[in-house]
# Entry
Amino acid sequence: MAAQSFRPARPARLVVLVSGSGTNLQALLDAVAPGREARPGDADPPYEIVAVGADRRGITGPERAERAGIPTFVCRVQDHATREEWDRALTEATAAYAPDLIVSAGFMKILGRRFLERFGGRVVNTHPALLPSFPGAHGVRDALAYGAKVTGCTVHFVDDGVDTGPVIAQRAVEVLDEDDESALHERIKEVERGLLVEVVGRLARDGYSLEGPEMRRVRLGS
Ligand code: GAR
# Structure
């Protein structure tokens, strides 16, 4: 099968989805904040965050967006009669901002069929383990319980499985004898934030293609 190529608009319009503290969102915000130090040869930010969506209230992620003057929306499963209706509502709320790319940055919900039909191939997720090991909601806890000596983080495209989409980039983090889940997760997140900013910047700046027999090999640049 021929390669599929994507070249987002410049700057790419990003919608970021969050469920928690939003430190990955903050890293994405800081990287394109007015007055940031421009990278050599790249004076223009590669992306702009046009909205931040959440699946719950009372979390700090959306507050970070509001402080930066970025619109937010909340779409809670419990406010909808069925999961399909929630999927439809989240798809519409996101589509209203006409995103080129969507980043799931600690968004703890499986995205629905309609959402992926609309935005498939343009939804990026960050996961705190080296996929395909330790997918799901407890990637850090599961790696620790298994006794892995090296874990890390994965930035990948979202498909209709649980953390099964094409891998874009990964970074390793050593597991220390004294680690508990929270200490290990914090060290992973330090690495993860840098990786996510770098990957989203490159996707937005250079475009990307999916190649190979299974269309799983991601090549940055077009
Ligand atoms: C991140 O470590 C992210 O990989 C993880 O939630 C954290 C969010 O942190 N996501 C998952 O576990 C998804 N399965 P943040 O809210 O501080 O950005």
Notes: The domain at 8-207 is CATH 3.40.50.170 (Rossmann fold). The helical segments are 23-31, 60-67, 83-95, 113-119, 139-146, 181-206. The longest helix spans residues 181-206.
